[in-house]
Amino acid sequence: MKLYYKPGACSLATHIVLNELGLSFDIESVDTSAKTTAGGRDFLEINPDGYVPALALDNGNVLTEGAAILQYLADQHPASGLAPAPGSWERTQLHRHLNFISAELHKSFSPLFQGAEGAAREAAIDKVRKRIAHFEPIFADGRPYLMGDTFSVADAYLFTVLNWAGFIGLSLDEFPQATAFVARIAERQATRRALEAEGLRKAA
Known about the structure:
The chain is of the alpha+beta class. It has nine helices and five strands.
C-alpha cells in the first residue's frame, strides 16, 4: 500500500492507524497547492479532488476520505479493536465521533487555513474553541479514549485535528481534558513513528 499525505494534515490519522496495525506501506508526500506528489506525479490522477489522504491499495484501488479510510482499515483487521463491530451500538458511537470530528471540528479550521483575518478570524477561532469544548465532558469521567478504555480510529483523527490548534495560535490550556488526551496519544509508539516519518518530531 501507499499513503499519499501532507505532513500534519488529516492524513496523519491514517498514518497513525497504519502503524497501529503494523502494516507494510510506503508514504509519499503531496504538494496540495501544486497538486503534485514528491515523485512528480499529477496528484489529480490519484485523487481528482486534490486533497489527502489517499490510500493506494495493493489491488490497485484507491481509497479517499479520511473517515472512510480509517473505518476500512479497522474493518479489515477486526482483531485490532480499532473499531467496534458493524451494527453494534458501540459502532454507532464511533460513527458519531468521526462525524463530529469531520463535519464540525475539522471543517471549523478551514477559514483559518485559508487566511481569514480580523473579525472573520476571531469568529472562526471562537467556533474552533466551541468545537473543542465538545470533547471536555466526554473525557471528564476519566476515560482515556473516546470509546472508553480502548483506542480507536476516532482517537487518531481527533489527535490529528487537535494538533492544528498550534498552527493557528490557539492554546489548548483552557481545555485540560483535550490537552491530556493529546499528550496521551502523542506517546503511543504508532503516533511517534508517524510524526517522525512526517518530519514533525525528532527521532528518539
